[in-house]
Amino acid sequence: MIKVTFYGVRGSLPTPGVRFARYGGNTACVAAFPAGSPDEVIIVDAGSGIRGLGGELLNSSIRQVHLFLTHFHWDHIQGLPFFAPLFDERFVVNIYSALPIDEIKEILSAQMRAPFFPVGTDMWKASVRYHRQRLTRGPSEHHTFQVTAFPLNHPQGATGYRFQHHAASFAYVSDHECGDAAIDDGIAAGARDTDLLIMDAQYTPSERPAKIGWGHSTSTQAMQMAVSSASRQLALFHHDPYRTDVELDEIEASSRLLHPNLLVAREGLTLTLR
After folding, report:
1. Any idea where the domains of the chain sit in the sequence?
2. What is d(CA 100, CA 157) in angstroms, rounded to the nearest whole number?
3. pLDDT tens, position by position, 222-240
4. Which helix (H) or strand (E) holds 22?
5. Judging by beta carbons within 10 Å of its beta carbon (0-12, 13-18, 19+), is residue 219 exposed, middle or buried?
6. Between the chain's N and C termini, which has fewer beta carbons within 10 Å?
7. Is the dihedral of CA 197, 198, 199, 201 positive or negative?
8. Do residues 170 and 162 touch, judged by C-beta distance below 8 A?
9. Omega into 34 within 30° of 0, i.e. cis?
10. Coil, helix or strand at residue 209
11. End-to-end CA distance of the chain
12. Inter-CA distances, 138 with 116, 156, 258, Å
């Protein structure tokens, strides 16, 4: 069993305000808690939503953090300097990316250097370990779970992930533009038969013609990927920062007519995968 909780569901930049309150305005961050592993958490992306998650972890039994980064655009790493476990010596924080380890270190330290941030990574007190998650056809072992990584179609590149804990599984496909057949087929294979597919659906079909090349998909394309991968549940994710709660309600209602086991991801939502 895995419990998956959304801490940030927005794309591009944080969106405060009452029109965005129900679905939330924080950028991408999802946490997964494997059953039987009370001391570890899987986190995917470090958008602004990771700040709230970090505060919760301080008061939990979790001390092993596995943070998987899809890429390094601001909305996916901007919360990392505010992730409290990094400043707590009780934690071991493992950071994974498809890039070489030296590049991961350089990118993350750069955003915390002057003049962008008042303290650097040298102030981190946790035991921070960097790992290169290679793009492979088979899963790699990580403690109590398995991970398969696959490429996404996004400017400057991005990585999608499949996580498996015993019989429960989910795939995370954020910042992907459908249309490259080879990459789409790789995603469908990586997400095959998962209990949950979390999928980029930033644009509506009517918006897509003006956004080709921007690296994002539509709700219709996300539904097609869910069918191709035979995923049992679909969560639309990485919402456009201008998309209001009312508009997301409308997208969910119309999309469910075509895919009944669909939801629009919102902050605070927890899904239990068995």
Report:
1. 2-273
2. 14
3. 999 999 999 999 999 999 9
4. none
5. buried
6. C
7. positive
8. yes
9. no
10. helix
11. 4
12. 39, 24, 32
Rounded to 5 degrees, φ, ψ at 69 are -105, 130
pTM: 0.96
CA–CA gap between residue 123 and residue 38 (Å, rounded): 27
Strand partners, 27: 10
pLDDT tens sequence across 99-156: 999 999 999 999 999 999 999 999 999 999 999 998 875 677 676 899 999 999 999 9
Give the pLDDT of residue 255.
Answer: 95
CATH T-level topology, domain 2-273: Metallo-beta-lactamase; Chain A (3.60.15)
Q: What's the rounded Cα separation, in Å, for the pair 137 and 20?
A: 39
- What count of other Cβ atoms lies within 10 Å of the Cβ of residue 15? 22
> How far is 227 from 230, CA to CA, in rounded Å?
5
Q: What are phi and psi of 70, to 5 degrees?
A: -75, -40
**Which one-letter DSSP state was computed for residue 49?**
T
**From residue 15, how far is each of 7, 18, 23, 43, 199 by CA, in Å?**
14, 10, 10, 21, 20
How much is the pLDDT for 128? 98
